Amino acid sequence: MATSSFHIASCDTKRATRWLRGSDMGSSSSSKVDLKSGLEECAVALSLFLNNKFTDALELLRPWAKESMYHALGYSTIVVLQAVMTFEQQDIQNGISAMKDALQTCQKYRRKSTVVESFSSFLSRGSLEQLSEEEMHAEICYAECLLQKAALTFVQDENMISFIKGGLKIRTSYQIYKECLSILHVMQKNKLEQEFFYEFEGGVKLGIGTFNLMLSLLPARIIRLLEFIGFSGNRELGLLQLREGASGRSMRSPLCCLTILGFHTYISLILGTGEVNVAEAENLLAPFLQQFPNVRLAQEIFRKCISVQEEWKQFHHLCYWELMWINVFQQNWMQAYYYSDLLCKESKWSKATYVFLKAAILSMLPEEDVLTTNENVVALFRQVDGLKQRIAGKSLPTEKFAVRKARRYSPSLPAPVKLVLPALEMMYVWNGFSIVGKREDLCENLLITVEKAEEALQNESFSDYSVDDECLVKLLKGCCLKNLQRPLQAELCFNHVKESEKLLKYDHYLVPFTLFECAFLHKSQGEIDKAIKDLETARNNYKDYSLESRLHFRIQAALHLWKKPSSD
User: Fold this and answer.
1) pLDDT confidence of residue 296
2) How many CB atoms lie within 10 A of CB 464?
3) What's the pLDDT score for residue 301?
4) How many CA atoms lie within 13 A of 432 on its CB side?
5) For 391, which DSSP code?
């Protein structure tokens, strides 16, 4: 996909400062900043940000953040991103304050009667003269700010009133984007020209594309409910809008690109089937790797990414997370422990998950190796329950899962009941088996580890956890065999789990997740009807189990890929 027409000048701090001092804005006494100047300087700030010069970008935008809509949008977005990365309460409050100021700044440029309120009447008069170019951009900026403020509201406050207010903000943002899309279509049809039409177009494509893409991931019954109140989620439309936005010359082109990349490399993996479109991701990334060389350095190896910048340590944490999983996939347990320990010490995103992962990884090591770390595995598992948090009034599903698993180490029990292959179970939860499935050597090594655990279980005395542990091992073994193209053996493992359903006492999630794996096994053998039946059985016949919503997302993604209309 060509993105060569889009260009942001790379510049260092001194050049950006000279640009600011030499601009018309610097000598203006007006309370507003003209659209041209705002767009140009915001483009410079975006270039600084994408080259890891975060403070420089903020300082460039700060002086005019209460006067220019694009300065306000850019400044508040960086502050909000920092809040999301750190999860510090003060940073979250700073983000909400910055976004509130940004909304007020954008409001100054909007018509008194907004697009959502007046679009029908203004179209009926057949004229776009009532909405100036500046007012059109104000609507887009306002919608972006409103969406971000709603997201932060969910994080900051857990009461129902705040939740409803946040939902209304999201709906208003979506409605503004829809009306702006209608304006865009009218302008294109009538071949109306504006100096910065391409920037308005880029904003519309980013918003409409992202909304449609994200909403399309939701389970069918939720989509129908949202459609009733005016939302829609069309994945093809979303990707089309984002691809067109990424190929344009708008300032938002790299943001459209990053959204598609995030969908292909993270969202499809965690909430989808794991079938990632690597080819498109690489094609999209190529031109931006040339434009922002530090990104190329980051791509080459995560460790070098850590050395690129020191301003935002939170980006280091993303690298630690990836490096931890890379080592888990390769069963380099000491190195995986090293990165999990860094996450526990430095990141505040999900302490319960990080501590559980660290304990799970240590559980894979021989006892003598654990002693060299000076860690107490039982004590780590016992910390998990006290570290869980709530966002928007809800516990995080992965933290709830970790808390439930860690109960086997509760001090109320006569003695801890060791978890079986806890690191590989978490790897499965995060869809890691779909990644290693592309490497036969890794799958073979994982199968050896799983079969050793299977043999060890057979030599242990029966307990309340025996059936659950045996079924977990069978599910993991089946996944390995499926990846190794041994479908008959894989199916035997999966059937064992399904047949043991009524004997499970704790890990009831194993059966619906096993049905999901069976569906892909049948699909690979061309038995699409059987595959669909397994998916629908998993979706409709089971509820109130761990990670239920995550599985429903994956089922929805699979049904979408297989072009089978949902009957739910």
Assistant:
1) 43
2) 10
3) 54
4) 22
5) E
53 torsion bin: left (phi>0), alpha (psi -120 to 50), beta (else): beta
Q: Is 463 exposed, middle or buried, given 0-12, 13-18 or 19+ CB atoms closer than 10 A?
A: exposed
Q: Tell me the C-alpha distance between 247 and 256, whole Å.
A: 9
Contact 380, 353 (CB under 8 A): no
- Please state the pTM of the whole predicted model: 0.72
Q: Give pLDDT, residue 151.
A: 76
Residue 511, φ and ψ in degrees, nearest 5: -70, -55
Which residue, 296, 290, 287, 345, is CA-closest to 316? 345
According to DSSP H, which parts of 347-431 are helical?
351-362, 367-372, 377-387, 397-406, 422-429
pLDDT the model gives residue 72 = 94
Q: How far apart (Å, rounded) are the C-alpha atoms in residues 41 and 6?
A: 16
* Number of neighbouring beta carbons within 10 Å of residue 505: 10
The sign of the CA dihedral 228, 234, 235, 240 is: negative
The whole-angstrom separation of Cα 435 and Cα 440 is 11
- Of 222, 276, 269, nearest to 539 (Cα)? 222
DSSP 113: S
**Which of the residues in the chain have pLDDT under 70?**
1-32, 113-130, 154-164, 276, 288-311, 391-394, 563-568
Compute how many other C-beta atoms are within 10 angstroms of the C-beta atom of residue 294: 16
> Residue 141 and residue 493: Cα distance in Å, rounded?
53
Structure token pair of residue 342: 């860094």
What's the pLDDT score for residue 29?
39
| Contact assessment for residue 235 and residue 212, using Cβ atoms and an 8 Å cutoff | yes
Distance of CA 266 to the CA centre of its chain: 6
pLDDT at 194: 83
Gap between the Cα atoms of 92 and 90, Å rounded: 5
Cα gap 86→11, rounded to integer Å: 27
**Contact between 321 and 426 (Cβ < 8 Å):** no
User: Token digits for 451?
Assistant: 């079969």
Residue type for 70, please? Y
The span from the CA of 434 to the CA of 146, in Å, is 36
Taking Cα atoms as reference points, which of 294, 255, 259, 251 lies closest to residue 71?
A: 251
Tokens, residue 123: 């179209």
Give me the DSSP letters along 188-248: HHHT---TTHHHHHHHHHHHHHHHHHHHHTS-HHHHHHHHHTT----HHHHHHHHHHHHHS
Cα Dmax for the chain = 82
CA 242, 243, 249, 255 dihedral sign is positive
What is the reported pLDDT for 28?
40
Give the whole-angstrom CA distance, residue 217 versus residue 317. Answer: 26
Q: How far is the first Cα of the chain from the last one, in angstroms, to the nearest whole number?
A: 37
- Of how many residues is the chain composed? 568
